[in-house]
Design brief:
Structural class: alpha/beta
Order of helices and strands: EHEHEHEHEHEHHHE
Number of domains: 1
Largest sheet: 7 strands, parallel
Number of helices: 8
CATH class: Alpha Beta
Strand order of the largest sheet: 3-2-1-4-5-6-7
CATH architecture: 3-Layer(aba) Sandwich
Shape: globular
Number of strands: 7
Helix content: 40-55%
Length: about 260
């Protein structure tokens, strides 16, 4: 059996209709996992699910729409995932919000709260909903998609960076809490990746050139270059790692 084999595992991935979340869902499916596709719009979820099932076999994926800002939506996501596949082995908290780009002095209270609620509180909600069954089985992997923003200061991504730093601490705390149940909790911290979510940081050629000039690999990353770390964390390959953050940024934070 391959260390990266995910056959028999069920993975729920939030924000999985595009970008990093979609890449993680496709690669986990490729490695044998059943995957739950989730984002806010049901029709978009259905379209992605259809594509994955055509690529990896009927019944590989199901679609369950959920808005991460709604506790009821998240509970429904867990309930319907269990109904569809009978369990959840791997949870990937990928969905996030960033409605504000600029200095912290200019952010509204509502924008600040939305970032913290969606990027930290909602992750804790969802993890708390999934973890009881993992405790019962004495097995589980929880993956939070953070960001290198949580490792650096920023003049334009302050609240988002704060939320992503908090995600790393959330993973450390929960790893300590649930380690005795053989549940692992880890983060992935991507650098600049070519996604719609990060478009403001790469769409302008001058901004992109300035960002990549400081990176040893001298380029922007792709969603698929993040997915391998999630497969590692969700499979036997990552069984002895918990409470950690894997940085995948082309070297940007070391230079």
């Amino acid at each position: 059996m391959s260390l990266f084999d995910m056959k028999g595992k069920v993975a729920v991935i939030t924000g999985s209709t595009r970008g990093i979340g979609l890449a993680i869902a496709e690669r986990m499916a490729e490695h044998g996992a059943k995957v739950v596709i989730s984002s806010r719009k049901q029709d978009v979820c259905d379209s992605v699910t259809k594509s994955i099932n055509e690529k990896f076999g009927k019944g590989t994926a199901v679609s369950i729409a959920a808005n991460i800002s709604s506790k009821e939506n998240l509970q429904n996501l867990v309930d319907e995932s269990n109904r569809a596949f009978g369990k959840i082995d791997v949870l990937v908290c990928n969905a996030a919000s960033n409605p504000y780009y600029g200095p912290l002095g200019g952010i509204s209270d509502d924008q600040f709260r939305k970032i913290l609620d969606n990027n930290i509180v909602a992750n804790n909600w969802l993890i708390n909903m999934v973890v009881p069954q993992m405790i019962e089985r004495k097995d589980g992997s929880i993956i939070i998609v953070s960001s290198i923003g949580g490792l650096k200061g920023s003049t334009v991504l302050g609240a988002y960076a704060i939320s992503k730093a908090a995600d790393m601490q959330l993973a450390r705390n929960l790893a300590c809490e649930y380690g005795k149940h053989n549940i692992r909790v880890n983060c992935i911290a991507p650098g600049l990746i070519k996604t719609d979510f990060a478009k403001a940081l790469w769409d302008n050629p001058d901004t992109l050139k300035a960002s990549t000039a400081r990176s040893p690999l001298l380029r922007i990353g792709t969603p698929d270059e993040i997915a391998g770390a999630a497969v590692f964390m969700g499979s036997a390959a990552g069984d002895f790692m918990t409470g950690q953050t894997i940085v995948i940024d082309g070297g940007a934070t070391i230079s």
